[in-house]
Amino acid sequence: MTHAAAAPANLLLVLLKARTFIALILVFAFFAFAAPNFLSTANMVIMSKHVALNAFLAIGMTFVIISGGIDLSVGSIVGLCGMVAGWLVLYGIDPGLGWSIQFNTVEICLIVMLVGVLIGAVNAFLVTKLNVAPFIATLGTLYVCRGAAMLFSDGRTFPNLNGNPEYGSDTFRLIGAGNVLGLPISIWMLIVVAGIAAYVARRTPLGRYIYAVGGNERGAALSGVKVNRIKFFVYMFSGLCAALVGLIISSQLVAAHPATGQSFELNAIAAAVLGGTSMSGGRGRIGGTIVGAFVIGVLSDGLVMMGVSSFWQTVIKGLVIIAAVVVDQAQQKLQARVALQAEAGK
């Protein structure tokens, strides 16, 4: 195959690899013209907070999908963890002895994150020890967590989560509303989590094992990789990311509602797939997922500003996932063809 004949295929492959950046530029440019006040400073700040929420979940989802699984429970974990945070801020823990245990903000955050990690461990246990398909296991956990969130308050909201200065919980609202060096605290949290995740994925044996398990689980096991441990890690990490989102949202709203997080798993999957994560496992990048989260965030906020119905927003996000998977399959086929032609041309 000549270089001239290979050039169009190589150019198309480059465009497919850069599809997420291209999509982000196109979506941003479209709403900059079509939506009033889209480029205003206030909207940029609000949108950055929304992107952070999507990105947290998408980072955890990326690890799960790379390992060959799926986590449909993240939205419900967000709701449940938000309710746990609200309960701890308002009531603490009452052992029924006429007194209660109260917690400061740091302790509340640690407890909520532990809840997210434990739910992730339950997902991993179902998948690894009981051999339940990831889709079914996490779908079941979705319903359990959503029901548990409702039971916390009989479906009511926990309002006025301002905390109590006496117990050191009055700083809880700063998690979602505070700023450091001009950036929201949630953005700094995202930078830290994304940086750690990217380092783990690309620079550590753990990251390589995650890719190996998703690429060929049987081969990874024969190579000595502790497959079950890897799956426990990715599901627990996904649960941790969901817990962080629950904390941030309840802090931003200074309230916790059990329905929080509904359909968030759709946004997380969409962001991961848009960022180049293969639904068949074994391939994906944290950086691409972050860009994918920006695409979903810009798309969601732009549609809201244009007054598009929430029903249509859901339809559009579903179409985005389908399109991303189709394009990903096209990229894989083109890569295989180009590699085959390159070998034949030697």
From TrEMBL:
GO cellular component: plasma membrane
Domain of life: Bacteria
A Pfam family reported for this protein in Swiss-Prot or TrEMBL: BPD_transp_2
Main location: membrane
Cellular location(s): Cell membrane
Coiled coil segments of this chain: none
UniProt topology in membrane: Multi-pass membrane protein
Stored CDD domains: TM_PBP1_transp_AraH_like
Ranges that cross the membrane: 20-39, 51-70, 76-93, 105-126, 132-153, 174-201, 232-255, 286-304
A Gene Ontology molecular function term of the record: transmembrane transporter activity
Keywords recorded for this protein, A-Z: Cell inner membrane, Cell membrane, Membrane, Transmembrane, Transmembrane helix, Transport
Statement: the UniProt record of this protein carries the keyword Cell membrane: yes
Protein name stated in the entry: ABC transporter permease
Originating organism: Paracoccus sediminis
